[in-house]
Amino acid sequence: MVDNHLCFSAEDIADITGGTWENLNDNTLIIKEFQNTYHYLKKGDCFVVRSDNWPNSSAYKNNEHLINKAVKKGISAIIVDENLKINVNIPVLKVENSYFAIKKLAKYASKNTQAKKVLITGSYGKTGFKLNLNHISKKQKSCYVRANSANYAASTYCNTASIKQDNELFLLELPVSKKEKIQRRSRLINPDIGVITSIGHEGIERFKSIEAIIENKLSIAYGIKKGGKLLLPHDDEHYLQIKKEAKKYRHVDILTYGTPRRCNANLLYKKFEDFGWNVIAKIEDRVVAYRVPFFEEYAVSTSLGVLLCAYHLGLDIHDAANEYYSCENFKSSGLFYKVNYKSKNFYLYDQSKRGGIEGYENFFKTFSYIEPKNNGRKILLTSEFVDYKDGEIAFIDTKKFQKLIKDSGIKTFYSVEKFSEHINVLSDKSIWKNHSIDFNNIKDEIIDSIKDDDILCVKGIFESILPKFILYIKNLDGIKLTKVKSKNSMQDENLSFRGLRALHVDDLATFKKYTHAADKASWIYYFPFLYFWSLSNSRELLIGEQNSSIKLFLLRTLNGEKKPDFEMFIPPLPFNETVLDNSLNALYRYNKKQKAKILWVDRDDLIKIKSSKKFDDILFKLRDREYIYNPKIYNDLSGQKLRNIRRAVAKIDTLENVEILEYSNKDKKECLELLDEWSIRQSSKYNNLDNRYTKMCLEYAHLFDKKDLLGLVFKIDSKIKSFHFAGEITKNIGSLFVIKSDHNINGLHIYMEYLMIIKMQNFNFLNAASDMGHTGLKHNKQILRPAKMLNMYKAYKDKKVTIQKEAFKDEF
Question: What is the pTM of this model?
Fold first, then answer.
């Protein structure tokens, strides 16, 4: 057997490949990995030897002459063509063709592994995405991945054949290639998830257009399992073209990651600090906080894709996010050093191994965030931006680069090789200090010019020899370089979000069960309102359960620039002292001090909080007074108190061609038009406070049963003039949720309120919310003659607020 837990035994290997073993003298053969490139061979590997019979001989050079050197490395086995005569004392598998043999092994391993497989491609960022995903996953799941790229098919086959039986994840990247080749590899891998990292001009000399590159890259979707996921970068300049191409593959679910809130993984907050990014993001239904230890601007967007992939691989997303701070850049992604040399302390940013148009654009954007300390300068040594023989020079946008370079704040500019051929990217040539074909001619000038706190960046295309300049610096006599590492500065915030997820419509039953058990009467406990209100792009309602109580938090001010406010929306439901203590501690961790708010507290919870010595430093302030109606009194409208209702009903009853119907989706367009007209007329009074959730109500009303959300529309001559929604808070309390009416029809608003109240006779009381301090709204609510007023409070920690004495009057 093969004692390494591969997907096959030594006997299986012979059967699968149709080969014959030689020198297999015992029952145990240890193979760590399969390799076809001598350079990557390590002790315990199996050397898949290339022969002249391999396809594409220009790419796969015959390496039979390296067999003896490979044996000296301590390899455990060899796979060779059967016509080759070799004299070695380790197991040798003789096959008809070693290329097709390893392909068969890869196909077998891919089909039989239980690992979730992720296939990654893109113009840039493939290796970084793969390695970062592996880094944040490895503490939770066994993952098979190779650091190097698999640029040729044989490398892909060796990689895949090396999957172990106990691996739970398999991560593989694919380079740009012909569509047919990518599809073949994708079909062989049969991934669960496909990832596109980026689209750029790399490979333009082969494919002639961005459209052709996109078509080829997206062909990885061909082999994704039915119902699998395809992850797309929404922030990519070519996203719309990418999405259009992706839609051709109807057997996969398309997911997106990027800045917009509609993405499956989207950015809530980012701040550049200490050469990295503090990030808060929403990954599907979870909010996480984490540290991105790279200062490239695109690294934040990439991290969203990595975490989205982790989420759909079944990882604990908060644990995964916690590991992100310790990810490290791969060699092509850039390294950052603190340098001490000749009594000078400065920084070195090594970006010497990757260029390209998009690479340079992102670099200059990133550099604009970096501010050297103590008047330090930004110094750049660069090669040309693109490889001229690749034809990318035609795609350099001179004006765009002029602005990017100006905004980057670079004060000193050195160049080498062929940069001078596109010197016009510099609008201010006074910063261009020197140029030479060979960096050796200006290396001493550059080093001598550096002062304390300067940042020297070395940026070059793949073909450049600037990595040798980095080597020159590292070998300077007496120089000391230290990698700048990141600290997990977002761990407390991430812990505060653990156990919480975004409110979902499926939470209705659980929320109502607890609301009924706690006998809540406030309008704020009406679940459809909470759900519709939560759909705003500026906020997230986060729900969790602990000790048979619901926790509800609000994360708001989600503009990506300011750290969002994080507050308790209501006390634990039903009230639980331990859960409240736990929730307050979550806020303290997030705020990094003992500061907290509970936005909506009824009198019952207020008394419970104040009765506990643990919370004696929490203060309260009256927030709102909600109107409570008794629906039974409206069956008879006689008498002085209800005269205004009686008059409104009588007036509307005289109108002709009136229809009153239950709301349906076909009414949505007209209701939205009515809402827009109402908003234009009333915006100066109400600031459109309820516009967003009213729109969401009209859009998603179909998600709720009629007992939870009943809608009525009032029509005259088949045109909607008013709509009203209401529903159940608990079995005893109903909510008069939202109403909008044509103000040109006198009495219609009161009539619709009355009509809805009559339909809700099964409730003991109805809550119509507060008047928000608006005189007109207060007048309308008073016309309906409230039975009671329900006081609602805001609770504070770290604020000196006194309770108004009248706050306890007329309580329900």
Answer: 0.90
